[in-house]
Design goal:
There is one protein chain. This protein is an alpha+beta fold and 174 residues long. It has a single domain, classed as Carboxypeptidase-like, regulatory domain (Immunoglobulin-like). Helix content is 16%, strand content 40%. The strands form two sheets. It has a six-stranded mixed β-sheet, covered by helices on one side. Strands 1, 2, 3, 6 and 9 form a five-stranded mixed β-sheet that branches. Strand 10 and strand 11 form a beta hairpin. The protein is globular, with a radius of gyration of 16 Å. The chain starts with 8 loop residues before the first helix and ends with a helix. The N terminus is likely disordered.
């Protein structure tokens, strides 16, 4: 019989909140000088177990097609340059870990100049498959974050209410 180590719900909720596409809002309004790019997106990936020996594959999708990918070690940073008015997704995967998906829209309102490009950075930790056994697997299939241009702030940010809701569904199934 297979047994899994259970993670206390309060600890798991805290870890999901702390690690799921937690954007560094300071600096989001800074712009990068990269010609032809609307958004420079970067992220740092680590594992919840803190074993520090993992490799993660980062896939950039434009629509349904992989347009770029890279491999990073634990606690390493990746970066992609995104064009204006496109729909992208980033899938972060690692052997023995539950993949995370992040959706990005680079659509800009009329009159917003993307030169130089906007910057957005996030840190995330992947959960091992064994730790995810008590989680809502259907909710894990949805993007953990939706990133788009925030007209009020004047830069790219993630939709906090969506992320809070999906994290709740992952943990509680509601």
């Amino acid at each position: 019989m297979k047994t899994f180590k259970r993670i206390p719900s309060a600890l798991l909720i805290g870890l999901l909140i702390a690690t799921s596409a937690s954007a560094t809002t300071t600096g989001n309004n800074k712009k990068a000088s990269t010609a032809g790019t609307c958004l420079e997106i970067s992220g740092r990936v680590s594992d919840l177990d803190k074993s520090n020996n993992n490799e993660f594959r980062i896939y950039l999708f434009k629509g349904a097609n992989v347009c770029d990918s890279t491999e990073v070690g634990d606690n390493s940073t990746f970066r992609f340059l995104l064009k204006k008015d496109e729909q992208y997704s980033i899938k972060i995967a690692g052997t023995g870990f539950v993949s995370k998906l992040i959706s990005i829209s680079t659509e800009l309102p009329e009159g917003v100049d993307a030169s130089p490009a906007f910057r957005f950075h996030f840190d995330t930790e992947l959960i091992s498959e064994s730790q995810a056994s008590d989680l809502n697997s259907d909710a894990l299939d949805f993007p953990i974050a939706l990133i788009s241009f925030d007209k009020t702030k004047g830069w790219f940010d993630y939709r906090k209410k969506y992320t809070e809701n999906i994290k709740k569904q992952i943990v509680t199934g509601n």
